Amino acid sequence: MSEVDDARKRNLKNIIAGEVVFSKRPGEVLRKWRTLFELSQKSIAREMDISSSVLSDYEKSRRKSPGTDFIRRYVEALIRLDEKRGGVKIREFASDVQTLSDVVLGMSEYTTPKTMADVVKLLKGVWLAGQEQQNSLIFGYTVVDSIEAIKRLGPYDFFRLLGASTERVVVFTNVERGRSPIIAAKIFPLRPRLIAIHGPRRVENVDAMAVELAKRERLPYVLSLHQTVEDVLASLSQ
User: Fold this and answer.
1) 3-state DSSP helix/strand/coil percent for the chain, to nearest 5?
2) Which of 6, 113, 114, 214 is the most buried (most CB within 10 A)?
3) Domain end point (choices 28, 63, 86)
4) How far is it, in rounded angstroms, from Cα 69 to Cα 48?
5) Which structural domain, as residue segments, surrounds residue 118?
6) What are phi and psi of 151, to 5 degrees?
7) pTM reported for the whole predicted model
C-alpha cells in the first residue's frame, strides 16, 4: 500500500478511536462505525477473536466502557476486514473528509449536558413534535447546511453527522419546508435525540407531513426562529 494510503488508514483509525474514547456513549459509536463499514457483529468478533455476545454487550452498553486495547483491536479489525474487500470504505471515508467539512457548519460536544428544553430555548425554538421529552439530556450539537448536504452527502453520511453521540441536536439550516431531515432520520437506525430546522419563518410554513411523521416516530422536532445561521451557531456555543 502507498504512503498516501497508509496515511489515510492512520487518520481514519485515529478518527474512529478518538470518537469512541471521548464519547459519553461509546457503545453507540462502536455500532455506528460497524454500520458505516457495513460489517456484521459476527465478522468483527471473529476478526478480534472474541464472541459476538461480548461485542454486542459493548454496543448495547451492558459492559463498562471499552479499554484502549479493545478499542485498538476493534478499529484494526474494521480496517483489515475492509482491506479484504478492496479498501472501499477506507477510500470513501478519506475522500469524504473535505465533503463533510463543506456540509457541517458547526459541531461540538458539551462539557456539561443541557436539557432539551434548554437547547430549544437557546435556538429560540418552537416545538413541532416531542415536547414531552424536553427533560432529556443533550450532549452536543451539529449544524448542517441542508442544501450542501443534499448535493454532497451519500446515503450513509447521515451517521457521520452524529459526532461522538446520538444524544445531540442536529440543526438543518437553509431549509424550505423541513420534510427531508425527518425522512432521513426515519430511514436510519441511529438518529439524533433532537432535530431542529432553520429557514421557515412561521410554523405554518413547515411541511405538515414532516410534523406528523415526527410525532409518529416520537422524534422531537423544533423550528428555530433565529434570524441568521450565525445566530444559530452562536446560541449553541454558549
Assistant:
1) 55, 15, 30
2) 214
3) 86
4) 11
5) 97-236
6) -75, -35
7) 0.63
